[in-house]
Amino acid sequence: MLVPTKIYVKELNIINRKKLIHGCAHITGGGLFENLKRVIPDNMCLNINLAKIKIHPIFKWIKKNNIRDSEMIKTFNCGVGFCLIAKKSNVEKIKRIFSKKFEPYEIGFISKEKNVFKVSGKLKW
Hints:
With 125 residues, the chain is an alpha+beta fold. The protein is built from five helices and five strands. The protein has a single domain (9-120), classed as PurM-like C-terminal domain (Phosphoribosyl-aminoimidazole Synthetase, Chain A, domain 2). It has helices at residues 9-17, 31-36, 57-63, 69-75, 91-97, and strands at 23-26, 45-49, 82-85, 108-111, 117-120. Strands 4-2-5 form a three-stranded mixed sheet, with no helix packed on it. A two-stranded antiparallel sheet has the order 1-3. The radius of gyration is 15 Å and the shape is globular. It starts with 8 loop residues before the first helix and ends in a 5-residue tail after the last strand.
């Protein structure tokens, strides 16, 4: 269980210099929602599709102990270690900066609404 965290400084420095993102969040204790809501403006809504999350095997193993999905996503990152908020037109440019092992993938989008979150889909254990 003690696998070192991937540090994204090299990639983020490149992305930041090229001005390809609007925000980012390291998904640590507090899980996905708590960490992301800190970077979303009040008048915006984060729309996340849980079915798009690529769950790492360690979290599947933890889930086998009858932990509710809501608790898993609240407590763990479930494999989403870092989130970038970017324009759709920048996604391919951003992907090229990362190695195949750590290639980013989309799990949602931001819309102009008063809700903080809209969640769809289910985690695929």
